[in-house]
Each structure stands twice: as C-alpha cells, then as structure tokens.
Amino acid sequence: MEIIFSAALCSVLVSMLLKFTKQKGFDALQMIAWNYAIASLLSYLWFKPDLVHISISNTPWWLIVGLGVVLPSIFFCLSKSLQSAGILRTEIAQRLSVVLSLLAAYFLFQEQFNQLKIIGIGLGIFAVLCIVLSHSDASNQSINKKGMLYLLSVWGGYALVDILLKYTTSLGLQFPVTLTLMFICSFVLSIGYLVLQKTQWKIQNLCAGLALGVLNFANIALYVKAHLLLKDSPAVVFAGMNILVVLMGVMAGLVIFKEKLKVVTALGLVLGLLGVICLALAI
Predict the structure, then answer these.
(1) In this predicted model, what pLDDT tens digit does every residue of 56-89 receive, in sequence order?
(2) In the chain, how many domains are there?
(3) Containing domain of residue 158, as a range?
(4) In this structure, are residues 275 and 239 in contact, taking their beta carbons and an 8 Å threshold?
(5) Which of 76, 169, 209, 279 has the fewest CB atoms within 10 Å, i.e. is most exposed?
(6) Residues 6+ apart with CB under 8 A from 218
C-alpha cells in the first residue's frame, strides 16, 4: 500500500499545481503538453527502454497510440467538464470511474474478490460519495448536453486509462518501451494540437509544465509499479488509489486551504480510512 499511497500523493500534488496555476492565469493546455515532454525524458532515464532495436511487428502500437490520444484528451475533457458541468459533478464522475475499473478487474483480469476486498471497496465508494456530496453547494449551475458529454468522457476516460495502464504491466520486456513511447506520442499530439490552434507560447507555461511533468510521471510510474507488485489484485490498486486521492484532497483542503470540516465529510474520511485498511489487509 506504500506505493499506492505515494502514487496518490503525486496525483493530489498534480491537481493542486493545476489549481494554483489556473488561478495565476497559466495556460493549462501548454502545461499539459510540456508535461509530457519531461515525462518522456524521465521515462527514458528511469526505465532505460531499448528504443534503438524496436520491433515494428511486436510493439503494441495500438496501445501506445491509444494512450497517447487518451492521456492528453482526458485532461482536456476534465477542464471542459469543470467549466460546463461544475466541480461537484466532475469530481463524482472522475472518482466513480473506479466502478468501471473494478468491473474490468473482475471480467477482464479475472480477479477473485474476497470478503475484505468487497467491504473495503464498498466503504471506499460510500466514503467518496459522502465527501463529494458534502460540497454540493459548490456546484449550482445547470448542465447542458455538451456538459453531460464531457462528464461521460471523464467517467469513461479515467477508467480507460486505468485499464490500459494495467494492461501495459503484462507486456514483460515491452513494458518500458511502451510506456516511454506513450509519453512521446502524447507530447507530439498535444504540441500538434496547440500549433493548429496557433497558440502564443509563454515561458511560464513551459516552466510550470516541466514541474507538472515530474509529478505526473511519478504518479504514473508508481501507479504502474503498484500494478506490477499486485498483479493479481488490480481492484485493490484501482480502489485504493481513488480512495486515497479523495482523502488526501480533503486533508489538503483542511490544512492548506483552511476549509471547514463538515460532519458528512468527517464521516467520509472515517469510512475511507476503514476502506483502505480493509484493502491493505486483503492483499
């Protein structure tokens, strides 16, 4: 669970950095593009993939291109969902994507669920609902068809990323190559999109993007490592990651942003902690 905890911490730091830079007027899309540049470099240095002798026929190009498209796209859909559907609905869609991931763990990865796993997952999902619904006054805006489309994209997109990243861990020697090429593909497609949009480049977005890339790479690398270590328990990684991200997000709000602790939020924190304990014991 230590690896999952570290991955969740990096994920929360990514969200906090995006929130801070948005308040300061940074361009999130430029940051996301440069984030994949540093993530590509770090992946090459950390995993040391053999990019010179890539096998054209054996390399899973569908997975590389798929993740290369989905990763930057989900960032884009997330920002649009926040604008059109509000923070509350977006947070619910993002975190409840774990339901789809858990279904994949059972049907695609053939994971067996024992009693502790089921209790931990149930407590965790209920805790997430308690926490996000306790902030229901933060989203009073109506939602149109486009907003609903972005919400569904966030819900399905985050689950798809979870599933595809889990799948990369089963590739053996092809895993480092796939992960590195995935980041490179994301960078190329993101830069291409910004060029077509005739974006005005700013050095502040480049610097912030590099910092974002370090955190995002650490998040994904640790998340994938957790799947490698718990290869027979993908549901524990899926659920544990989502629960811990929500719990850490609430703690950051209380400590850093001085938010008030509501009764329902406190209940969610307790249930979430119990859920994480159950998942840890179930490993």
Answers:
(1) 888 889 999 999 999 999 988 887 887 777 666 7
(2) 1
(3) 1-47+54-134+142-282
(4) yes
(5) 76
(6) 6, 7, 10
